Amino acid sequence: MKITAAFLALVGSAAAFAPAAVPKTTSTTSLNALEDLPGATAPLPAFDPIGLATSGSDETLLWFRAAELKHSRVAMLATTGYIVQASGIHFPGQLSSDISFESLSTMKPFDAWEAVPAGGKAQILLTIFIAELISESKGDHYTKGGAFPTIVFPPVDFSGVSAETMSLKQNRELNNGRLAMIAIMSFIAANNVPGSVPALAGNPMF
Predict the structure, then answer these.
(1) pTM of the predicted structure, to 2 decimals
(2) What distance in Å separates the CA atoms of residue 114 and residue 192, rounded to the nearest whole number?
């Protein structure tokens, strides 16, 4: 099913998902602080059209960045999962006694979620909750000077990576994640509202 990718985002990810160091910011959150965070790249290093960076404290800005990281990771796996299953590739066998993975792969995303038995939905949501709880409970919280959330499983060791390489990986992760968020929103819109995404109109995957 197409929603499987979103679930997998919380139990696994690519090696590019590096822990981000939290910058030392001043007592007043500003666009300068935003430029110090990973992901501040050309051509718009401090893109903030509605002023979110200045809507609260330093902790608020760090919370926004952590949320962006998590949504980016989910979106990258969701986009990949959508494309893979829309191409006809899916798990073999049955999800439950009366629902096959093949049948789920032919459904629209929301319809596929509705077809998952209640017990399956509960397991997915519980796993997400546990992964979120673990990631938010590791060491010092990111809003208090700790590292941004890292993947729960499998753990990835970046201790031997240079600061320059780490910065490059973090920028790539965020930029790819931002594109993936746009992509998966476009996929779902095209699937549920015909003609809403002209570039995808007529594509059999949608």
Answers:
(1) 0.76
(2) 14
